[in-house]
Amino acid sequence: MLGPEQVNLAVRPSPIFLEGLVAIQITEEVAKDLGLKDGQIVRGIFGYRGDELRLVVNKREFNWTAANQFKAGDKLDLRVTNNARSLQPLAPRAQPELLATPGPRLMSLLFRPPQASAVSSLLMSDGQAPALQQLAQGDNARWLSQLMQTMARLSPADVKRALLASGLFTEGRLASQLAANFDLKQLLKSILRAQPPQSALGRDVESAIDEIEGRQVESLQAQQNRSISYSFLMPFLDANPVQVKFERGRHQDDDKDPDWIINLHTDSRSMGELWLKTTFKPSLRLDMEMWAARADIARLARAGSSDLHHQMEEFGLALGKMTVHHARRPLAGTQDSHPGGVVDITT
Fold first, then answer.
1. How many helices (H) and strands (E) does the chain have?
2. Which of 217, 226, 211, 205 is nearest to 93 (CA)?
3. d(Cα 262, Cα 279) in Å, to the nearest integer?
4. pTM of the model
5. What is the DSSP secondary-structure string of 143-180?
6. Which residue has the higher pLDDT, 106 or 289?
7. Cβ pair 25, 85 in contact under 8 A
8. Residue 41 near residue 246 (C-beta atoms within 8 A)
9. How far, CA to CA in Å, does 16 sit from each of 65, 69, 91, 185, 224?
10. Which end of the chain is less enclosed by CB atoms within 10 A, N or C?
């Protein structure tokens, strides 16, 4: 089995290398006016003023000799150095690029048909397939226990830990010569090696690995588009797993920060199937939309919206629109359209 580190990826070199070569010198007055301090990183955007291409930082224009290496609309990060007297351009980081002729493994991940989450099926203790806890033995069982969370004591640190252990980052860390911590994908591959060849259980585990690697490819595609998209699953000891997807679009020409969108999906033992979409705006406002398969849970959510509003205020957040539907989420819940996918638009 191949991983995303072997799916015909190439590195696109940065066309311009600026770090350590050219700096923009500024006066103390300009630094004070912009509120600059050593070590800060600020972003500039190139635009024409008359016939000259200039770099604009916080609405202040700079006539820079290296501007001819860029075009209007390009953005550049700069580090404040030399007691806030210099703006040091930072070279853009090289990004991985998919080749024009991807191999069969990559194609199978890109065009994987929509289906129920194989990872969720393995981690649902009340599901039809044997739970992953029943498959893991020895070291695998010990590693699995370290990956499992507790819903009753869930914290932001637990969410971060689940993301890092999701299997999305192993190859990236290895490519950057960083230590790769044990994660869910490595655990599944270890369990797969212990299964008899061509067994039904082995196919279930292999499908779960394909799901994780497909999500890795989706994250890579988003990265190439200068956006963010991460899909992962949080396993729990005291609850069924929760699928999490958070994404952010690319910055547009108006340089406004794009919204963050967070999607959650679970089939709860006590509340039935639930979907939640949260849109987090740069103004610290949250818009929420919820789909509940059970009518009593939908009513409970509507009744609790005012309490949620007050709780948000305690954290400096504003709850904007809160919409609750007694229905399944349209378009197969959290399954997104993708190359090769089909969307039913009949009414």
1. 11, 14
2. 226
3. 7
4. 0.66
5. HHHHH-B-GGG--HHHHHHHHHTSSSSHHHHHHTT---
6. 289
7. yes
8. no
9. 14, 8, 7, 36, 17
10. C
